[in-house]
Structures are given as structure tokens and as C-alpha cells.
Design goal:
alpha/beta, Rossmann fold, Ribosomal Protein S5, domain 2, nine-stranded mixed beta sheet, 11 helices, elongated
């Protein structure tokens, strides 16, 4: 009887399998990518294999009314800003992907999370990039080693081999699993080269399945490309429950944003500062992004916007500069506010106020380097552009919020009363915004002409 072949040839680029070696992969058309790989035994008990679909092994549907809602309970991270972004804590049986540039603090965040997590269960920190000694040195710098009980529950595994990680997961049964990083994971079953698309998809899916089957939670870090998106297959973001992006500004603040969250809002952001003791949450963000100047010394082109980031109000300084265009076509330079939004607001000013901006280059910046996507910034942006073009400075104690329509009308924004209250508490004497009833301290405006008239007393023609 002919012996069954125990070897196959798998493409390291796309994962295609062939029973014999070929010089060129018939699937992805790459040359010399087929490598010899051992077949798994049929009796293998690895996590990658599905259970036999017979008898009691088959999953059975349940009436929704019989499901215990406590199965989806959360674990507190012990870090307020991280809890805010996650929607209230770590959801059990969830997978979280954290992306960011090298050195921004992803590993530090995971280590601090492991130490501060409000759970008595065991925590497994898996690193494919650092040695145990390097991780211990980081823990010492962060001041985590002083608490021996916390350090005892964190177990370090420095390995990138999926099978070794699975073996330790089954032995330890942790409630939290930290993987640093997705690009280092490797399994012979997914090809001979680490870091490929196939490796990342295969290894991450195996780990996600394990955490969902064992009532645990998973955190995976990932590198980003030069465009700022997570490197690797887009399907990796679809497989996880939450995708967080770690960003940094010039002032060394760190911003943690949710790009996807099945268990909470993606509008919240977490703000941290990096110091000698690691990442420190910033609780009072009201004046964090405001430039401190001498009274009555506000330059033209500056407006204070009250914007919402999730559930809290942040006051930010919008800076605008208008200079004659160097060529026949004017340009917009804005990376913290969408350049399309800047162009639209400038068109509204030119149409309804007669303020010529189409022959000027427009530069827009947000002090502190925070990226603003909320629609409530539009009215402050319009005021900053008008001020920059005319050379007239806005009052330094005036905060602004509102949406500007193409017809020049000022439209309502969410939680206006909360924005006004925050501005008043921070010492602002005036707040300009869309007309709403029963909002104390608000200077109501209906259109862009009324806005300029209220601030400057006249409308430029």
C-alpha cells in the first residue's frame, strides 16, 4: 500500500499549497516561494483544527431570553483614560488591536495595563520583540516592581511561536493576554516566513478564538505604515472587536483613539503624557490645548473652539493664516482639520460676506497638535479665517461652537449647554453659538453675517 505523503509545498507569500514543488506559485505568480512544510497529523489537537462535528461537540443555538447578560461584563483597566476609550472597561471574550508608530508607548501601555487591571486572575504578557530582562527593566522604570503581588500575577513569555504560546495559554489559563506584536507571530502551518499577511491572519485568528472559548480578553499591538494605518491585512481589523490608534503630537502628548469598537463609542479619546514613570492620564483637559498669553494680546487669526471629544468638552485654539497665493491657484495647508472643510468654510465666507479668499493660500493649525473632526469647530474656523484675512483680532475671552451650512446659516450642535458651562468654568466671559432656548451665557447667532456683526460690529464687503 502506498504511503501517504507527509509533506506539502506551501507558498510563503499567499499560503497556496501544492503536492509537489513548483518554481512559480500558480496562485500569486511569485517565483521561488513554495517551501517544504510538514502536514499536520489528523489526530493533532492544535487550536487551529475545528472540533469534530458530531454529537455533543456541535454548538447549539440558545433563545436570546435565556442568555445571561453578565457573560458580557467588563473588567476595569485601572487607567481612566483607557476605560473611557474602551467604553467602560475591558469586555470579556473581546480582542483589542492597538496600533501606533515605533516608540510611541504601545508596550508601555500594555505593561501598565497588566499591572493596573482590576482582576485577580493571571495575566500573560507575550513578547516577540524583547527579552524578559528588558521587560523587567521597563517595569522597574515604571515603578511597577514595588508591588510584589501585582508582579507575581503577571507572567512573561518571550516567544513568537504560535504553538508555544498556545501551550502556555492552556497551562496558565490567563484572564488577560497581551501580545507584542502581531507582526512577530509565527507558525509553520502558515508558511516559512514570519511577518507575512498569511502569518498575521492565521496566528491572530487562533489567539482570538482561544480567548473567546476560554472567557479571556486579548490585547495585540501592531505597527503602522508611513500613512499611519495598521500594517498588514485589513482583515485583521475586521477580526478583532476594537481597534485603537496611538498618536503623538509635538508637545509629547499621546492620544488614544478608537477606530472601531463593538462595545462602545468611537468618539471618545484618551489623552496621556509620557514621563519617567510611563504614561500618565490627563484628567483636566479644559485648558490643555490653549496657548497662554498676556491679557489683551490675542493676535489676529486666532479663535477658541469648544469641541466635543466623546462626552467631554475640550477648548482648543484654532490658528489661521492667509497670504497671497504664490501661483495662479490658491492652496490649503491643514493637517489637523480636514482641508476639504477649510475650503468649504472659506467658500461660504467669500459668498456671503464678500471676503475674497480664493486668491490666498490658507494655513490652518490646531494648537497642541490634536486632530479635530467634530462639526462644531466650523464656526470657530470661520471666525479665525475672517480674523486672519482682515487683521482684526477676536476677543480673547470668547469661546465659539457651531456648524456652518453652505447657505451661511449657523446650525445647532450636540451638547451646547455643556460646552457653554465648561467655557464659563474656565473663565470665558462670552460664548458664541447657534440660537437655543434656555442656554445661560450664550450669545445666539443665526447666520454668518450676524456672527461677524456681533464680534466686530461690521461686515466686510
Amino acid at each position: 500500500m502506498k504511503k501517504k505523503n507527509s509533506l506539502i509545498y506551501k507558498c510563503s507569500a499567499c499560503g497556496h499549497e501544492e503536492p509537489k514543488w513548483l518554481g512559480r506559485c500558480p496562485e500569486c505568480r511569485e517565483w521561488n516561494t513554495l517551501t517544504e512544510t510538514a502536514l499536520k497529523n489528523e489526530g493533532s489537537n492544535s487550536l487551529g483544527q475545528r472540533k469534530a462535528k458530531t454529537g455533543s461537540d456541535l454548538p447549539k443555538p440558545l433563545p436570546l431570553s435565556t442568555v445571561d447578560p453578565m457573560e458580557g461584563s467588563r473588567i476595569g483597566t485601572g487607567i481612566g483614560e483607557l476605560d473611557r476609550v474602551l467604553g467602560g472597561g475591558i469586555m470579556k471574550r473581546s480582542a483589542v488591536l492597538v496600533g501606533g508608530e515605533p516608540g510611541i508607548g504601545k508596550s508601555t501601555l500594555l505593561l501598565q495595563l497588566a499591572a493596573a487591571a482590576q482582576t485577580k486572575g493571571r495575566i500573560l504578557y507575550v513578547s516577540g520583540e524583547e527579552s524578559p530582562g528588558q521587560i523587567k527593566l521597563r517595569a522597574d522604570r515604571l515603578g511597577l516592581s514595588a508591588n510584589k503581588s501585582v508582579m507575581d500575577r503577571i507572567e512573561i513569555l518571550c516567544s513568537a511561536q504560535l504553538e508555544e504560546i498556545e501551550y502556555n495559554l492552556n497551562n496558565i489559563k490567563p484572564v488577560l493576554v497581551m501580545i507584542d506584536s502581531a507582526q512577530t507571530l509565527f507558525s509553520p502551518d502558515a508558511g516559512a516566513v514570519a511577518g507575512t499577511v498569511n502569518q498575521m491572519k492565521f496566528c491572530s485568528l487562533e489567539l482570538i478564538n482561544w480567548t473567546k472559548e476560554h472567557d479571556a480578553s486579548l490585547f495585540i499591538t501592531a505597527h503602522v505604515t508611513k500613512e499611519g494605518v495598521i500594517a498588514g491585512p485589513k482583515t485583521l481589523e475586521h477580526m478583532v472587536d476594537t481597534v485603537l490608534y496611538f498618536e503623538q503630537n509635538d508637545a509629547d502628548f499621546r492620544f488614544l483613539r478608537g477606530a472601531k469598537n463593538r462595545f462602545g463609542s468611537v468618539d471618545e479619546i484618551g489623552i496621556f503624557t509620557m514621563g519617567e514613570h510611563g504614561l500618565s492620564p490627563v484628567d483636566d483637559t479644559g485648558r490643555l490645548f490653549l496657548v497662554r498669553r498676556e491679557p489683551s494680546n490675542a493676535p489676529p487669526g486666532v479663535a477658541i473652539a469648544a469641541v466635543l471629544e466623546g462626552t467631554r468638552t475640550i477648548l482648543v485654539e484654532i490658528q489661521a493664516l492667509c497670504i497671497p497665493a504664490k501661483g495662479s491657484i490658491s492652496r490649503v495647508f491643514s493637517d489637523k482639520i480636514d482641508s476639504g472643510r477649510v475650503s468649504r468654510i472659506s467658500a461660504v465666507l467669500e459668498k456671503h460676506l464678500g471676503l475674497r479668499l480664493s486668491d490666498h493660500d490658507l494655513y490652518v493649525n490646531v494648537a497642541g497638535g490634536i486632530r479635530i473632526t467634530e462639526v462644531g469647530v466650523e464656526l470657530a474656523l470661520a471666525c479665525a479665517l475672517y480674523s486672519a484675512r482682515t487683521g482684526l483680532a477676536l476677543p480673547e475671552d470668547l469661546a465659539i461652537a457651531g456648524e456652518v451650512s453652505l447657505t451661511g446659516e449657523i446650525r445647532p450642535v450636540r451638547r451646547l449647554a455643556g460646552r457653554v458651562k465648561t467655557a464659563v468654568n474656565l473663565g470665558f466671559n462670552g460664548f458664541l453659538g447657534p440660537a437655543e432656548k434656555e442656554v445661560k451665557g450664550l450669545i445666539p447667532v443665526n447666520d454668518i453675517k450676524m456672527v461677524i456683526s456681533k464680534i466686530f460690529g461690521n461686515v466686510k464687503k
